[in-house]
Amino acid sequence: MRDFDTLVEALQSLKAEGYQYDFNLISDGLHCKELDLMVGADDFVVEEIHRFEGDSDPADNSILYVLSTSKGVKGTMVDAYGTYSGEIDPVVLQKLKVAK
Predict the structure, then answer these.
(1) Residue 27 domain-assigned?
(2) How does 15-39 read in b/e, with b if 16+ C-beta sit within 10 Å?
(3) Of residues 83 and 55, which shows the higher confidence score?
């Protein structure tokens, strides 16, 4: 697995490799605002994960998911370490947890 020093470095490198879209976690899957595309648990694969820790503040901890969808869309999702709020589809959560 590749090793990135910072989240910014990882996002820039991955964007250059074609992972150009940003996804967000929603109640029943993932959503790409730019494409107005929603994908459920069966429609995406977590290809890689990368963890980043802030130097001085534990609240700066984040995780980067490198994703591809069944429609060929490649992108990333940044989230706090396993901190999910609201009602999230348990199948989606399990898929993200397994990838960690």
Answers:
(1) yes
(2) eeeebebbbebeeebbbbeeeebeb
(3) 55
Q: What is the pLDDT of residues 48-79, one digit of tens each?
A: 989 888 765 555 688 899 999 999 999 999 98
Amino acid letter, 55: D
Q: How many domains is the chain built from?
A: 1
CA separation for the pair 41, 52 (Å, rounded): 24
Residue 1 included in any domain: no
2 within a domain of the structure (yes/no): no
How many CB atoms sit inside 10 A of residue 59's CB?
A: 9
Tokens of 70: 């069944």
Closest CA to 98 of 45, 61, 29, 53: 45
Q: What is the pTM of this model?
A: 0.83
CA–CA gap between residue 7 and residue 95 (Å, rounded): 22
pLDDT in tens, 26-54: 988 999 999 999 999 999 999 998 988 87
